[in-house]
Amino acid sequence: MAPSSASPSAAGLVERVRALQPLLRKHALRTEQERRVTEEVASALTEAGVYRMNVPRRYGGYQSRLSTQVEVLSEIAAGCGSTGFVALIQAGCAYIAALFPDEAQDEIFTSPDVRVGGTLVPDAVAVATDGGYVVNGTSGFATGCQSADWHLLTVRVQSAEGPPELLWTAVPMAELEILDDWHVSGLAGSGSNSVVARDVFVPAHRVLPVGPLLAGDIPSKANADDPFYRMPVLMLFCAWTAPNALGPARAALAEFSERIHRRGITYTFHERQYEAGVTHLQIAEAAMKISCAELLAREFVARIEAAAENGDPYTQADRARIRAQSGYAARLCKEAVDLIASASGASSLHRDVPIQRAVRDLYALNLHSFVNPATNLELYGRVLSGLDAGTPFL
Is there a single domain that holds both residue 102 and residue 150? Predict the structure, then answer.
C-alpha cells in the first residue's frame, strides 16, 4: 500500500477520481498487458481516497453514500474496466472487513487506505484448532491480490452432521502465495490470480461466518447499530457491479461518437460514417440500451439506500429483483457495446483502441456467477412464480 502524501476529505471524491480518467486510459493497455493494475494507478487512486469509501470513520474512512460509490466506480471503470473491477472488489471487501469482530478491524484498518481483497469461492479448507483455524488450499479469482494488504479468504469447515460451514477468514497477503495463472481475454488487467494457503493459522477473532452474515448477524459491536453497515452485503455487490458495466459502455459510446466523424464506411459511398442512416440507428439504439441500464441501476441503488436510512426490511422478492436488475443492466450494457463494436470497423480491433477492450471486459463481467443475467432472471422468475429462490445468496 502506497503511503498518502495528504489526507483527502470525503468531499470532492467523485471530482478527484474523474480527474484521473486520462491517467486510467493511458495505462489501460499496459494494465492489460501486465495483467494487473499498475502501481502508478493504484497510488493515484489511494491519493484520491478511493480505498476509504467503506472504511469506518473511526479509522479515518469515509463511509461514503452508496450513490457516491457508484459514481466513483463508474468513473474508474470508464477509464479502465480492469481497474474498475479491482476497485469494486476492494471497496466491497473493505465493507465486509468492517463487519468482522472489532479486534480484527483494529488489525486490518491500520490505515484508512488499506487495500482488502477477497473471494466468495470456498475452495480452501479450514480445520479448527486451539484458538482458531488452520487453513489450506487454493482459491481462484483473487482480484487485485498483488496490490492488496489483506485477503478475505472463504473456507469450508467440514462437519459430520451436515453441509460444511462457510467462513470468511482475514489473512495478511504476506501469508499467502500468489500463483501467476491469470491469463484471460476479458478484465485481463484485474490480476485475479489464485492464492494458496499452506498451514496458515487464522485466530478466531479474524473469522466471519458467512451464513449468519447473510442473515444480517454481524459480530462487530462498534458497527452493529450503524445503518451504513446494516445494508445487505450481496445487495451492495449488485450496486457496486452496475458501474463496472455502465462505465465502459458510456466510454465506448463516447468514443464511437467521435470515431464516426473521423472515418467513412469502406466499400460504400459514405465518406463520413456519421452521415449514414444505419449509423443513426446504431448509435441511437446503443444509447437507449445504456440509458435503460442507468435507469435500472439508479432505481435499485436508491432502493438500497432508502431501506438503510429507514430501516426497511428486504423481502425475498426485493432481493431477487435487485439481483435480476443488476444482471439485466450488465446485459444491456454488453448489448450496447456489442452493437457499437459491430459498427466500428476492422480498425477497432487494434489493441490500442478502447472499444475492443470494452467488448471483452463486459463479456467477462456478464460471465461472473453473481452477475450472470440468465441465472439472475431465473432466480427472480422463481420468486415471481411463487417458489423459493433456490439460493441463500440474495
Answer: no
